Amino acid sequence: MSLILVIGGYGGFGARLSRRLAAAGHDVLVCGRSLAKAERFCRPVERARPVQVDRNTGLQAVLRDLKPDIVIDAAGPFQARGYAVPRECIAAGCHYLDLADARDFVCGIGELDVAAKKAKLVVISGVSSVPALSGAVVRRLADGLDDVAQVEIAISASTRSTASRSVTSAILSYAGRPIRLWRGGRWGAVCGASELRRMRFEVAGVKPLGRRWLSLCDVPDLEILPAMLPGRPAVAFRAGSDRPPHILGLWLVAWLVRLGVVPCLKGLAGIFVRLQRAVIWFGSDRSAMAVIMRGRRGERRVERRWTLIAEDGCGPEVPTLAAALLVEEILASRCRS
Fold first, then answer.
1. Buried (b) or exposed (e) across 71-84, using 16+ Cβ within 10 A?
2. Is 186 exposed, middle or buried, given 0-12, 13-18 or 19+ CB atoms closer than 10 A?
3. Nearest residue to 121 via CA among 91, 143, 166
4. What is the CA 99 to chain-centroid distance, rounded?
5. Beta partners for residue 150, in sequence order
6. pLDDT in tens, 131-168
7. Which of 4, 18, 183, 201 has its CA 20 to 30 A from that of 92?
8. Is 193 helix (H, G, I), strand (E, B) or coil?
9. What contacts 24+ positions apart, CB below 8 Å, involve 54-58?
C-alpha cells in the first residue's frame, strides 16, 4: 500500500493532485499549515488524511513519524526557495517530486543528484505543465528533424484557475525584470511581462479559443531546451489569461520595475489576486497550451504544432498529470535515481 504526502495538498493544484492520487487508490496525506482547511478538504475524499505541518519547521518530524513513500511539494511559489524540503526527504528515505516552474529552482536541483543516488531515491523537480509536459511535447515534435531553429511555448489560462496568491506571486517576481533568453546564437536579456503577442489556439473539431494576449515569462524551458535540441534553437515562453485587462495591466505595471521606480512587484500579489477575483466570473472556463516548433528536415523547412484545449474549468488539472504518472512509475520501480 502506497502513502503519498502532498505539501499544499488542499491548495489550488495540490487539491486536484490529492484527489487524483486518492482516486487512483493511494493513501494521501494532505498537508498544510491550516489543519482546519486540511480537514475540510479531506472529509469528502476517501483515502485522504489531514496533516498540519509547516514545511519550514515541522516537516522532518512528520516524515520520521508517518514514513510516506513519496513526498510531492505542490505549494508554490518556488522562486528564491532553497532545497531544504528535498534534502529532508532524502534524509528520511522518501522519494521527492514537485510542481515547480521556477527556473533557478528546477535547473539547480541537480546539486542533489549525488545524495539522491546514494540513497537510491528519485528526486525530480518541475513535474508540471513546464518543463515536464512541455519538454515531452518538444521531444516528440523534434523527432526526425535535423535542425530546430525556434521553439515557442504558450499557455493561456482561465482566470478562474489563476486567481491564487502563489501563481500571482510567481509571475510578479519576474515581471519587468531581466529574463535570460537564447536568441540568435547567444544569450540576451528581455524583461518579463514584455513582448505582448496575441495567439489563436485551435484544435480540429473543437471550438477555437479566439485570440488571447500573452507576454514573456521566466520558466525552466528557456534554460533547458536550447542545449537539448539539435541546432540550439531560440526558445520563448509566453503566458496570459482569458481576460485582456489582466495581461495588459500587468504589462503596464511592469514598467514600474523596468524604469527603476520599484525593484519588484511581488509585494503587490495580494492586490492583484483581489482584482482577479473581483471579475473571476466574467472570464471563460477554457484554458489552452500550445507548442510551436520550426526547423529543418533535409532541405525542407518544417513547422510542427501541438495544442491542448481544456474545457469546463479543467485547465488546472493539467499541471497535476505528470506528477500522477510519475508516482506510478516510481512505485513500480520503473523510475530510478
1. bbbbbbbbbebebe
2. exposed
3. 91
4. 5
5. 234, 294
6. 999 999 999 999 999 999 999 999 999 876 655 788 88
7. 18
8. coil
9. 55/7, 55/31, 55/84, 55/85, 56/84
Is 239 strand, coil or helix?
strand
Give the pLDDT confidence of 225-261 residue by residue, as tens digits: 999 999 999 999 999 988 888 899 999 999 999 999 9
3-state secondary structure of 59: helix
Band (pLDDT 50/70/90 cuts) for residue 337 is low
Q: Would you state the pLDDT for residue 162?
A: 59
Q: Please, which residues have CB within 8 angstroms of residue 226's CB and are 6 or more apart in sequence?
A: 182, 232, 233, 234, 235
Q: Extract long-range pairs of 27-33: CB within 8 Å, 24+ residues apart.
A: 27/1, 27/2, 27/3, 28/3, 28/4, 29/3, 29/4, 29/5, 29/66, 29/68, 30/6, 31/5, 31/6, 31/7, 31/55, 31/62, 32/7, 32/8, 32/75
Sheet holding 211-216, edge to edge: 197-200, 211-216, 234-241, 147-157, 287-297, 300-310
Cell of 17: 493532485
Residue 204's φ and ψ, nearest 5 degrees, are: -55, 130
Percentage of residues in the chain with pLDDT exceeding 90?
82
pTM of the model: 0.94
Edge-to-edge strands, sheet with 3-7: 48-52, 27-32, 3-7, 70-73, 95-98, 123-124
Helix pair 59-66, 84-92: axis angle to 10 deg: 30
Q: How many Cα atoms are found within 13 Å in the side-chain-facing hemisphere of 46?
A: 3
Measure the CA angle with vertex 105, ends 27 and 83; round to 5°: 60
